[in-house]
Each structure stands twice: as C-alpha cells, then as structure tokens.
Amino acid sequence: MATRNPTYYEILGINSGAKHNEVGLAFNRKMAARRREDAPPDLKGETMLREAFDVLSDLDRRAEYDAKLRVAMIKPAFAKGHALMAVGFLVAVGGALYWYLNRPVEAPVVGKTYQEILNGAIPAVGRLQTLDMSGQGTTAGVAFAVLEGTLVTSCQGHSPTAVMSVSMGNREIPAKVTMADEGLGLCKLEASGAGTWPLSVSPQPAKAADRVYAVNVTPKGDVLLREGMVTGVMRSENASVLKVNIPVPAQHGGAPLLDVNGRVVAVVNMPPDGKGSYVALPKVWGDPPPPPSKEPPKPAATDPSEVDKTGGVDDLKLPGGRRPAQTEREKRLEKALRPPPTVPDDI
Questions:
Q1: For 90, what's the count of Cα atoms within 13 Å in the CB-facing half-sphere?
Q2: Cβ proximity of 165 and 173 under 8 Å
Q3: Is 170 helix (H, G, I), strand (E, B) or coil?
Q4: pLDDT (tens digit per residue) in 79-109
Q5: CATH T-level topology, domain 124-190
Q6: Which has the closest alpha carbon to 155: 254, 252, 72, 292?
Q7: Residue 251 and residue 217: Cα distance in Å, rounded?
Q8: Phi, psi of 329 (to 5 degrees)
C-alpha cells in the first residue's frame, strides 16, 4: 500500500488552522534545529521546509492549497456510483474558491509580515565583540545600524576606549565608540562599511498593547525574531523603559526591539548584573548628523602696499596704476585746498 506524502502543515509541524505569523515562527524553528552542529545534513528535508513555507506564507497560494487538500481527502469516500455527487461537490468547491479569490479586498492590516521584518533586520544586525591586546575577541552583545556606518548598542560594561568589531554575515568590521549617553545607557559606534541597509527608528513611542518583535542573534550569527507585546511603560527623568512579555536573552545587550513596521522602538540595556531591560530609543538617534555650517566668506583684505601712508581714499591704487574716480565732493575739496601758483619775481 502506497504511503501518503506529508502535507505542508505536517512538514512545518502546525495544524491547518494556524495563524499567518505562526507559519514563519515554525519555519525558523525548524531551520534552526537543522543548523545545529549535531544535526545531520538533509538537503531534501530543507528543500521541503522551504517549499512548505513559500506556499503557506502566501495567503492566496495557501487558499488554493487548502482547497486541493479538501478535494484529496474527499475522493476516497466516494464510490464509482457517486461520481455525479463528486462532480457537484467539486463544482461547489470551485465556486467557493472563485468567490474567495475574487472577494472584495479588505483594508490591509497595518504593519509588515513576519518575513518582511526579518528580512529587514538580517543585514542591519550583528554580533559585537571586544578585542584584547592579542586580538582575541569576546562576545560583548549585539549592535545594529541606524545609519550607514553608524551603529547603536548598550554601553553597559563597555569601556569607551575599547577596541571592538561587529560580525555582520561573513564580515568582521572594526568599530569604535563615538558617543555615550549615560542616562539611556546606550552608545553610538562608528563602523565604516556597515549598515548599507540600516533600520529606521520609529517616530512614535511604543505604548501598552503594541505588538513588537525582539531580535535574537545565535552564536553562529543567524538573526531570529520573537513576537511579543508591550505590557506597560515606565518613564523616568532620563529614559522610558518598556515592559515586554519577552525575556531578555543573555549576552544580548544592544539588541533592537522592533514594531510591526520593522522600526526600532527600544534597545536591550544589559547592565553588569545581567538583568536586562528594554530602553526606548529616541527618534533623534536615527537622524543623520547636521551638515557643517557654512560661514560667509570674509572680505579680502586690502593690500597695504597699495594704500598711501596717509590712508586717504585718493591714494588708493587700482591694478595697472589707475586711481578710483573722484566724487564731486572730493573734487571741490581738492580745488579749495590746492596751494596758489608760484609767481615769478620779475613780473
């Protein structure tokens, strides 16, 4: 007897009524398990996982797939004598499917999909390391780009003069602290060549009941998301701290917390005692630096050699030995002060 092929839902380990965001969570969980060092390679299994995710993460393709599953489950229940009933049922299913695909489009849900948010976070987030005198790296948390060449991380436990590097994909990028905010406990890093696709900072502060995504980075550098919710906001003189129903993983100081549009709303602040918190990130941290001020050009100084010692306007020489044209007042003054002509004695 031929064995039945597993459905896409069985491959991902979810039921057919799973929510849309659960598809992405299940896919990432399965892929993470396959990438463990002790997991045997299974190219066919990984291919089936990707195929299942591609179909079930697309609402229209998932609807078509669900219709095919229903038809496949009903076929064995019909005997040959019930062929007309089967045809009628298929027509009804086809009509329902046609109505579903051509139904009036509802207003889109605010926010991006899980996969879109993850795709935006992957190139902007990396592992932060501090380097000792021998060049040996020690994991120091997470950093993420808010501008090209500018990263943000938690300052807690870091020396402003420490030599650092950020691992992004297959690259190790040198980094150094350029700004530290003691009130927020956050630092800006300069990392030339990092952050070609930076994360934007949300212009609106997060509030209770907002859906958020915590960014996690595995020891191998894989970026993952955990969905949660803001349960409250604590405001102090220096910062606002978000209460989120997602625990802060160890060694994740500096990891961003994203809203439903993939924008940064908070950063994990990991003090030395290891009790982390989500500190709200002000919008100004994502703004580009102001352009250098342009001072008006200073007037060219007059060459002293071109002015007579008396400093008079009449003695100012122009290029080529010429003098500036006199005004009527200057002409009258010159005539009035001109000495009388010398008269010969023999007249």
A1: 13
A2: yes
A3: coil
A4: 444 555 665 677 677 767 766 667 655 544 4
A5: Thrombin, subunit H (2.40.10)
A6: 254
A7: 10
A8: -65, -40
